[in-house]
Amino acid sequence: MNEIDDEYKFDLSPIFRPKSTVIIGLSTRNPDHPGNAMFSKNLMEMKTKAYGIAPKAQEVDGHAVYNSLSALPEVPDLAVVALSAQHTLPVITELAEFGVKGAVIIGGGFGETGKEGKKMQDAIVKVCLDHNMPFLGPNCIGVYSPPIVDTFFLPSERMVKPKQGNVAIISQSGGVLVDQFFINCKERDIGISTAVSIGNKAMVNEAMLLNYFEKDSNTDVMAFYLEGFHEGGGRKFCEIARKSRKDVVVYSGGISKAGKVAAGSHTGSLASNASILQGAYKQFSIINPTTEQNLTNVLKIYSMLANPFRKYSTMAIHRDKVSVLSVSGGHGVICSDLMEKYGLSLTKLSARQKEDIGFLLNPVAYRIAGLNNPIDITGSGTDADIVNILEYLLNAKNVEIILCLLVPQVPQLTMRLGRAIMQIGSKYKKPIIAYVPWTPKYDLIRDALELNYIPCAHTIEETIQMAAALILKGEGGLRKKMSFV
Known about the structure:
- By secondary structure, the protein is an alpha/beta fold.
- The chain is 39% helix and 15% strand.
- It has 2 domains: 13-302, Succinyl-CoA synthetase domains (Rossmann fold, 3-Layer(aba) Sandwich); 311-475, Rossmann fold (3-Layer(aba) Sandwich), CATH 3.40.50.261.
- It has helices at residues 13-16, 34-44, 85-98, 115-130, 174-187, 206-214, 233-243, 257-267, 274-283, 292-305, 329-341, 351-359, 363-368, 383-394, 417-425, 443-450, 460-475; strands at 20-24, 49-53, 59-60, 63-64, 78-81, 102-105, 135-136, 142-145, 149-150, 164-171, 192-197, 221-226, 247-252, 322-326, 375-376, 401-405, 432-435, 456-457.
């Protein structure tokens, strides 16, 4: 049983927004047991009403618990099962018959281990299908849906959690989810709406979750880490993604020979040919970053520019309509080299445009500035020079996106520069992406920009990665094309 038939339509809201949650698999002897961590977190930190079950105890870690399902004061929406594989099927059967609406199966030892494990997994799926009780997993850490529920069994003091936002993260690997996704999102101030670990995805799979988050009003961007698809699942996923009104991003694992072997033993996935996958993603308008850094930058730009308060459009950007403004010639050179790597090119400025730009500069900068594209106003540039040239480029019909490489070490640039750029940029539809050295010394500049939806990059290459992501989105036809100016 590799994939759930289309006839099964599940309500996943009890998993993501449960009013009540029961944790099964508490330990009276080991306070660090995964079940104990989940019970404590949901009881003390989340809004769901949390119950714990321990057959022979009255309390666990100082919290009152129940001895059985039948002793609970209500039928919970969600059950989280933290038991070994051989003990899971009877408990799932009891939960389904009790009327629980959804489940998370934490334990491993199922389809990823071979035939016997797959038999146990299939038996669980059959029970849940018969009782219309969808579940995440097995072999997963479940769901983090702030402020409602958190089934991640990792202690809160060890977790790095991003702020709430508009990105839903769906990952086959719990480790990748809480490390690569959570830490990078926290560092880059990317907010998440929900995070889901799907593990073996025996019942609830990536296509179902794509459908769910397409309708979720708190989500604008869906980011997936996938190690492969069950038979037929890849095409279904791509077809749903193509129809989505939201941005769909897939970061792939298991694409090398060694990675395919690892994926099979990790989550029991059938890894696909990398070139075929990449071609399919492009055909179906799915963004497919190939590095961790690029993934983070794609999520950064998409999450910021999906905000309804932004004043500029992100569409209709052509690869050869990029303008670069810098106070350092070297930064412009590096940017030009990297743009070629990502398939972007600089728009050609006319003689009249270069003359106009020159007249906008202070006299000292005018004498030594490079007025080709990239525009280098040198270390003699001022806040006013940058703002005036930006406004000129924002009105230029042959410029569709501006990369502004800021070097705040320049003596005549001030900490007010971010706010000045924001005030100009917010009047126009064209996107501006800024590079600002990632050090606390320049937080004031960066914060002024990002609070007003001008994304900032750590490095020059990240600036270009974000620009390329916007262009890819437009080329994929994910949004209605809009004109500038």
